[in-house]
Fold these 4 entries.
Entry 1:
Amino acid sequence: MRQYAGNRAGLAIVGATLLGAGGYAWLRGHDRFFDLPPTAKVLPGPAHRALAQDPWPLWFLALGLLLLALVALRWLLVGLGWGRRGTHNGTGTAMLFVGLKGVDGLSRTGVRVAEDGLRIGLTCPAAADVGAVVSKLDQDIVGRVRREVRDDETPTVVRLHVRR
């Protein structure tokens, strides 16, 4: 879970920076910035004149910042786990690890219980015998997980990812 803490800290820093810059711009635009006179310049004179003559760079900047905000929002939603189906089931994950204890290098293994059935995700290294892993899953492990978490008739989706 450590990577999620890093994601959330990064999002908090980026979000606070953007919120501060947006608040400053809004206050300056409405002449409500504390003791600063409304005629005080934010940009140097030549830059202000160049932007007054041709405002297109500001529109491109606004579009770029909007795209950055959308990417940050997607990052936040994925980091919070939205879009994933079902809830994590620790018992099923433990049973999956016990059943595959002979496979070295397993990572990102999990069992989720969704409305439409079980979802099992498994990542193994390239050196692992994928055929043996699939046959173990097919013969007994998925059935045991089904019986423990729900029942034998529960539809199950197994996603196996092989790392390079």
Entry 2:
Amino acid sequence: MPADSPFAGRALGDTKARTRTRSSIVAIVRDAGVLPAPGPDDLLRAGDTLVAVGTREGLDALVRIIGGS
């Protein structure tokens, strides 16, 4: 999660990732821990690593959304 992402500091649900890309964020890796099966209210932070599953096209779209392009 880049520091300049429009979703840094916002809830995962704000991304509408599943609806927009048909990809699912299945975990958030943060610092030395892992948040499995994050819910829509879980906050995203700059520096998070998002673990997602989906088609190649869907994952590419997710990267663009999270990156703000």
Entry 3:
Amino acid sequence: MIVPGIAKPPAVPLIRTFTREAGPQWFRAMDRNGDGFVSVREFLGTPEQFRKLDRDGDGLLSAEEAEKVAKP
């Protein structure tokens, strides 16, 4: 419903979906806030290790990035 004089509500932001079972065990254990990603603050390794694992450079490790660790 559009009401004169009232701004249009903002669009709903895209939400990343995940499952708690996604990614290897070490990844799920480090994801302390349960958002499906491991941030630099949650990561227990060195900053250099984090940068190597963060293939897309977004500052978060996804389950997909974590799964590639064991694969060549």
Entry 4:
Amino acid sequence: MEICIVCYDGFDELDGVGPYEVFSYAARAGADCTVSMRTLDGQDTVTGSNGLTIQPDGPLADRTPDLLVVPGGGWNDRRDPSAWSEAQRGVLPERIRTLAADGCTVAGVCTGGMLLAESGILDGRRAVTHASALSDLRAYDDIEVIDARVVDDGVLTAGGVTSGIDLALYLVARDFGEEIADSVATTLEYERSDAIHITSDDD
């Protein structure tokens, strides 16, 4: 499984790095996955919302990963750069929409879920985002907001910041087994959350 975490100037560092660590440890524990941090345009460095500068692994370019993780950051402050400015620019939401149409599983962490909402791929689905942005998510008429840490309705969303770790651990358990997920949680000394809403055919 190829996992790409898309990063952009103003992204919340833990939104991206938390899942990155989970998937990296999962690979070491035997999961058949690779994880990388990628930008849309191949810029050499990206600076997060708290000032951390990282060197991405390369551009997302024309690749279609099996899983795309979209972090949030700076949404409520309407700062530039941020998830908010990425939504206004429109390029990232369009790429998210294209990748989803091509069969890529998409997951939003924190206000990264707002970028998924802007892309249209949450229409008709259940979702969650950071508590402070729930009113913005509710403004989309076709999205049902769920009170949960992680929501899996085909497209995945998670609440604020550290919930990205819960999202990644859930995906590791779902795709590679509970044993590997437990191993990763033990390594991280992290207590897995059971506040996960999974939409079934009966919902």
